[in-house]
Design brief:
With about 140 residues, the chain is an all-alpha fold. It has a domain at about 45-140. The chain contains 6 helices and no strands. The chain has helices spanning about 1-15, 30-35, 40-65, 70-90, 95-110, 125-140. Helix 3 (about 40-65) runs antiparallel to helix 4, helix 3 (about 40-65) packs parallel to helix 5 (about 95-110) and helix 4 runs antiparallel to helix 5 (about 95-110). The radius of gyration is 22 Å and the shape is flat. The chain starts with a helix and ends with a helix.
């Protein structure tokens, strides 16, 4: 990486056109599979749950950050999140990672309906995940 930057600077100084930088290779499926294989079965299950729930949470957070959205639009989204929470929690035993996911969905649903935001109500990893989503949407 450093040698490539140095080479580009030398080309620019000498007046030669600099070659476009070579993009870093994207992780291959084999690399991702190798990383996932190092997780415990419980961690893999939790990661799968988060990957299913995170897009729903992100949509809710984005809607919270759009003041021009109507109460009806927020209510519709809140209802969708509440239904997803019910599905996530259905038939789950205490301690199930699906229950934490359902709680996060319910919390964002409540925020859309006007309940004051309180991240302390959320379990990890959802507390950190939603904090990052909130921070990310404020920086855009």
């Amino acid at each position: 990486m450093f040698s490539q930057a140095l080479q580009t600077m030398e080309q620019q100084i000498s007046g030669q056109p600099a070659a476009p930088p070579t993009p870093a290779p994207a992780p291959t499926a084999a690399m991702v599979e190798a990383m996932l294989s190092q997780l415990s079965p419980a961690q893999r299950a939790e990661l799968q749950i988060i990957s299913q729930v995170a897009p729903l949470l992100q949509q809710g957070i984005q809607l919270l950050q759009q003041p021009d959205r109507t109460a009806a639009e927020r209510g519709w989204a809140a209802q969708g999140l509440a239904q997803a929470a019910e599905q996530a929690a259905a038939g789950e035993a205490p301690g199930s990672p699906w229950l934490a996911a359902a709680a996060a969905l319910r919390q964002v649903s409540a925020w859309l309906q006007g309940t004051p935001a309180d991240l302390s109500q959320l379990a990890e990893p959802y507390q950190s995940l939603i904090a990052q989503m909130l921070e990310g949407s404020n920086n855009e």
